[in-house]
Amino acid sequence: MTIAITGATGQLGRHIISQLRQHIPAGEIVALARSPEKAANSGVTVRQADYTRPATLETALQGIDTLLLISGNDLGQRTAQHANVIAAAQKNGVRRIVYTSLLRADTSPLNLAPEHVATEKLIQRSGMAYTILRNGWYTENYTASIPAALSLGAFYGSAGEGKIASATRADYAAAAVAVLTSPGHEGKTYELAGDQAYTLADLAAELSAQSGKQIPYVNIPEADYAAALVKAGLPAGFAAAIASWDSGAAQGALFDDNHQLSRLIGRTTTPLAQSIKAVL
């Protein structure tokens, strides 16, 4: 069996390839990347695969049995890009496809959801066996803000008292590896999230305890948070998106308590305190 992973040089893709090598021979793994040179030291076969260039996809997927399609990050263009990958997989006779979607994509208020729903439908109609991994939020999405919070003396956001059941990229990678290397997952959709839900005030309290500094959580309106992110150097469109995701968290978009992720990987997900400690 040959397993190919798209987005192999991305943060999630690197975790998946590293963990997958612990379960199957490196010769059965193919890393697909827009810039193959970035995966040169991955220890597996590397092929060029650009979501926007169908010819590269058709070549890259030759001889592949199972494909892990990691969703792209070009917001607004992903449905068409994913369609290119799915079409190339069909053309090459790929037997099974696994896709990284979004937690409760079909009901989520996040603006990320529609492209995921559209991709899921394309996969379900493709004729290939499939598994949908609806990944919740990455803990790193919030712990990446720790250096700024320490500098500013506060952790800012717009999530209110919304509970966030995040997990680390390594946790979600473990779920992907479990599905790729074990039977019984065909036709299933998994809603994946962390075991421990927390508010941003909880995160700030844990950060304060570990750092020895008082770092309160300061909740501000979505528009003000977006403006602050622009002032910090982010493009306006991306800043607005991040602020809207925080508002979605306030509506419960990032919370889930069914523990499908920990059951799938056979262990509890990484605690928030451990992730904060790693950053510090």
Automatic annotation (TrEMBL):
Q: Which Gene3D superfamilies match?
A: NAD(P)-binding Rossmann-like Domain (3.40.50.720), UDP-galactose 4-epimerase, domain 1 (3.90.25.10)
Transmembrane residues, as ranges?
Answer: none
Task: Please name the PANTHER family in this protein's record.
Answer: NMRA-LIKE DOMAIN-CONTAINING PROTEIN, QUINONE OXIDOREDUCTASE 2
Q: What name is this protein filed under? A: Oxidoreductase YtfG
Q: What organism is listed for this UniProt entry?
A: Shimwellia blattae (strain ATCC 29907 / DSM 4481 / JCM 1650 / NBRC 105725 / CDC 9005-74) (Escherichia blattae)
Give residue ranges for domain NAD(P)-binding: 7-183
